[in-house]
Amino acid sequence: MDTKADIFYRELPKVELHAHLNGSVSFKTMEKLISRKPHLNIEHSMTAIRSGQQRTLEECFQVFKVVHQLVNTEEDILMVAKDVINEFAEDGVKYLELRSTPREETKTGLTKRRYIETVLEAIRQCQNEGVDIDVRFLVAVDRRNGSDVAMETVKLAEEFMLSTDGLVVGLDLSGDPTVGHGRDLLPALHRAKSSGLKLALHLSEKLFQVPSQLEESELLLSLPPDRIGHGTFLHPNMGGAQRLVDQVVKHNIPLELCLTSNIKGQTVSCYSKHHFQYWYQLGHPSVICTDDKGVFCTDLSQEYQLAASTFGLSHEDVWKLSVQAVDCTFAPDHVKHRLKRRWEDFKPHVLR
Ligand code: IMP
Ligand code: ZN
To answer: Which residues contact 218 (CB under 8 A, 6 or more apart)?
Structure first.
């Protein structure tokens, strides 16, 4: 991590709703992975984007490919998931929705089913070890893999949603936004929604091929999703359209906003121009998240502090943002109530 956030932000109880497992691997865990696979000749500079560095979004996707080479066995996934969960807990995250794309690896015999089971095993082990964090899982669809894989992934996610007593709560749509078109994935997304999976969709993340992108955003918004990842180019000042904003507002769809990820991935030019400002001023539910804390060398406390210092938020404002994030989780109501009570217990200690 580049700098450490002030104590208020570290003590603030936090909700993390947008964290990709393989993008969240810390320096420490990366060292263990690299030493397990020295023959790959992978160095840290290939898996993390440090302070002051930027990459294009395309280059970020190359970074994920490198991480995937390092994480290709059940043993790796178990270690990575447990480390990531523990690190979020150490950062004061009390509720985490982790997401990951199930992968099969012919070389190691890893299957998509075992991939998901291993992540769930990591969550259960952390629970049994008393780690102070409630973790749920979103099964991710990588848009580059097309409609058949998307449908197959939805079916797997449905199965796990029904068999894991609330651990699997939803579906994520992610991957390189310039590859494929959302229209091809609509049948899978509709099926997921009607089966009860919540939808967290990366949407309007990058500006390119404007007409088809607006069309895709409109189509995906018509589902409507339960949360939006990034939504960077939805609003008219950023090349989007008022009708898209109107849809988001009408359905009250929360946004997952990841400041450092957008700056380092060069979809937003600087912190002060981040679209957090636009949505926050509208009073629209906006949740600060990390996206890929390992790749972008950040943590959630730091992201809250960056939002506060950039947009002049008081501790009271930041507290409200953190409480509001509880309402945006995919957890059932009784869990939200339990979390809200915990936040009340923390309040006098944190907001002193
Ligand atoms: P994994 O799903 O746990 O393997 O996490 C890495 C994957 O998450 C990448 O290969 C992408 O598909 C996805 N991902 C991570 N960050 C982003 C992002 O900013 N935009 C779109 N997809 C992303
Ligand atoms: Zn993301």
So the answer is: 243, 244, 247
Q: Where are the domains of the chain?
A: 4-343
Q: Rounded to whole angstroms, what are the CA distances from 161 to 236, 270, 339?
A: 37, 39, 22
- Write down the architecture of domain 4-343 according to CATH: Alpha-Beta Barrel (3.20)
- Ligand 1 in reach of 101 Cβ (< 6 A): yes
Which residue out of 205, 216, 256, 303 is catalytically annotated?
205
Clarify whether 205 is annotated catalytic.
yes
Output the CA 254–ligand 2 centroid distance in Å. 15
pLDDT in tens, 15-38: 999 999 999 999 999 999 999 999
Handedness of CA 260, 83, 177, 277 (dihedral sign): negative
Ligand nearest to the CA of 98: 1
Is the CB–ligand 1 distance for residue 76 below 6 Å? no
Distance of CA 248 to the CA centre of its chain: 19
pTM: 0.98
Confirm or reject: Cβ of 202 under 6 Å from ligand 1: yes
Rounded mean pLDDT of 93-100? 99
CA of 68, closest atom in ligand 1: 4
CA 111, 115, 116, 117 dihedral sign is positive
Q: Give pLDDT tens digits for 190-222.
A: 999 999 999 999 999 998 777 788 999 999 999
